[in-house]
Amino acid sequence: MPNKDLAARVGVAPSTALERVRRLREAGVLQGFHAEVAPSAVGIGLQAMVAVRLARHSRPQVEAIHAHLLSLPEVLCLYHVAGADDFLVHVGVRDSNHLRDFAMSALTSREEVAHIQTHLIFAFSRNPELPVYAQAGED
User: Fold this and answer.
1) Do 58 and 111 contact (CB within 8 A), yes or no?
2) In this predicted structure, what is the pLDDT of residue 57?
3) Ramachandran region of residue 28, left (φ > 0), alpha (ψ -120 to 50) or beta?
4) Residue 5 burial (CB < 10 Å; 0-12/13-18/19+)?
């Protein structure tokens, strides 16, 4: 969003909006900006969320599978989670054959992996408004 549109939306002068954005970036509140790319434009015809359960919960195994997954071009996002599964892996692939090959070569062939469960993603929506909560002690 252009700075002048942001300023108008929040009701401040463009110079004020620019300064506030600069301060938010310096404080680490705003960590970056991105472009939303159409998956089909880059050859992604199918997306899935793959739940990965590790054989053992040792730091070396967690770190090894984490590094391995982040090195793969099919991995769009990686979440290290608590619960029955250890990782949720958001993958983007060409088609179901590519998904099967990915699961077999990138996951089930790894000694760290005990179990995977694949969930196809039919639709994806992002909440355009990130909720903002007051910090503890603020009114």
Assistant:
1) no
2) 87
3) left
4) exposed
What does pTM read for this prediction? 0.79
Low-confidence spans in the chain with pLDDT less than 70: 133-139
CA angle 135, 131, 44 (to 5 degrees): 135
Contact predicate 70/33, CB 8 Å? no
What residues have CB less than 8 Å from 22, skipping those under 6 apart? none
Please, are residues 48 and 99 in contact by the beta-carbon 8 Å criterion?
A: yes
**48: Cβ contacts below 8 Å, ≥ 6 apart:** 90, 91, 93, 99, 118, 119, 120, 121
Residue 112: the pLDDT is: 94
Please state, in angstroms and rounded to a whole number, the distance separating the CA atoms of residues 120 and 90. 10
Domains of the chain: 1-33 (1.10.10.10), 39-121 (3.30.70.920)
Helix (H, G, I), strand (E, B) or coil at 134: coil
Residue-level pLDDT at 14: 93
Q: What integer pLDDT is reported at residue 33 of this predicted model?
A: 83
